[in-house]
């Protein structure tokens, strides 16, 4: 074999080796399988839901799947219209899962009291017969001069606590029938009270109606009454509602007629909630 022939064979072998599948570029292999090349930039991060920076803080509520403003109000012990206003919500039917809502008034801590300004005023002694927070000469609150130096923001306030006097509620039974379902925090957040269609449903204490309608799934025709800063009551499954939102009601006033909306039988589902948390009504209602 001549030298020229040997060179030709060597070049042919070299070209065959270069064309072997073992030497295909990795990018081609990823492309042929439909996967995205690692050289492509990652998708931008999804924006955080509104108010996410307040998640977990006292006085705020994180929206869960299936939540509505009415449920948020029930779970936080607030009027749903107030929650809507505090969060500048235009459409009450649109909430985003993970959205964090303020459930205490702006400028108030979770106890519902107004935030006091930080001042540099000196505390003056007062006579024993002077009322707290007033001047002995005029009986009116003194003028407070705010400190001009910048101050660090205060730490997050403590969890909500009941105001003094909030527990002094004169409760009564909302219906005269027998209790057919007791309180169970996991499965039944109130009492089931039996009756006939049209039986009267009474306000369990003085208060103001914060909801009257059928917009909360599982409750049927529902009335929610707010009694003070700590307590509200819910009356569900009615056939007829006799009150409207923002109406003041008195203890013992007929507010609805018993029915079976969103229920398999005629009954009143009655809840007492303290700062949004269900509590056992049997521990608050008087003995029969």
Structure description:
The model is unreliable at 17-43, 112-138, 142-151 and 153-160 (pLDDT under 50). A hairpin with a 4-residue loop joins strand 7 and strand 8 (231-238). Strands 3, 4, 6, 7, 8, 10, 12 and 13 form an 8-stranded antiparallel β-sheet that branches. This protein has a 3-stranded antiparallel β-sheet with strand order 5-11-9, with no helix packed on it. It has a two-stranded antiparallel ribbon with strand order 1-2. Among the domains are: 52-102, LysM domain (Membrane-bound Lytic Murein Transglycosylase D, Chain A, Roll), CATH 3.10.350.10; 179-283, Glucose Permease (Domain IIA) (Distorted Sandwich), CATH 2.70.70. The protein is built from 4 helices and 13 strands. The protein is an alpha+beta fold.
Helix content: 10-25%
SS element count, helices: 4
CATH structural fold name of the domain at 179-283: Glucose Permease (Domain IIA)
> Which ranges are low-confidence, i.e. pLDDT below 50, for 5 or more consecutive residues?
17-43, 112-138, 142-151, 153-160
Q: How many whole angstroms does the radius of gyration measure?
A: 33 Å
* Main sheet characteristics: 8 strands, antiparallel
Going by CATH, the homologous superfamily of the domain at 179-283 would be Glucose Permease (Domain IIA)
Note the beta-strand portion.
15-25%
What's the CATH class label of the domain at 179-283? Mainly Beta
Q: In total, how many beta strands? A: 13
| Structural class assignment | alpha+beta
> What is the general shape?
globular
């Amino acid at each position: 074999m001549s030298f020229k022939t040997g060179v030709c064979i060597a070049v042919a072998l070299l070209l065959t080796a270069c064309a072997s599948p073992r030497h295909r570029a990795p990018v081609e292999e990823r492309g042929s399988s439909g996967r995205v090349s690692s050289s492509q930039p990652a998708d931008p991060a999804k924006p955080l839901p509104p108010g996410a920076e307040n998640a977990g803080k006292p006085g705020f509520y994180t929206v869960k799947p299936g939540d509505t403003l009415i449920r948020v109000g029930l779970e936080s012990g607030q009027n749903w219209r107030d929650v809507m206003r505090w969060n500048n919500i235009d459409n009450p039917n649109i909430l985003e899962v993970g959205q964090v809502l303020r459930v205490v008034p702006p400028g108030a801590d979770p106890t519902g009291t107004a935030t006091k300004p930080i001042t540099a005023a000196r505390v003056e002694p007062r006579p024993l017969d002077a009322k707290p927070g007033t001047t002995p000469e005029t009986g009116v609150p003194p003028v407070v001069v705010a400190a001009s130096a910048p101050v660090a923001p205060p730490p997050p306030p403590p969890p909500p606590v009941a105001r003094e006097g909030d527990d002094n509620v004169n409760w009564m039974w909302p219906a005269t029938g027998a209790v057919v379902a007791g309180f169970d925090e996991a499965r039944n957040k109130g009492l089931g009270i039996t009756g006939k269609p049209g039986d009267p449903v009474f306000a369990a204490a003085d208060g103001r109606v914060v909801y009257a309608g059928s917009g909360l799934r599982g409750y049927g025709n529902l009335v929610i009454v707010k009694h003070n800063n700590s307590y509200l009551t819910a009356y569900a499954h009615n056939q007829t509602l006799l009150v409207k939102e923002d109406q003041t009601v008195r203890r013992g006033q007929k507010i609805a007629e018993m029915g079976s909306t969103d229920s398999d039988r005629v009954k009143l589902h009655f809840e007492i909630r303290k700062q949004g948390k269900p509590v056992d009504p049997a521990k608050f209602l008087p003995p029969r």
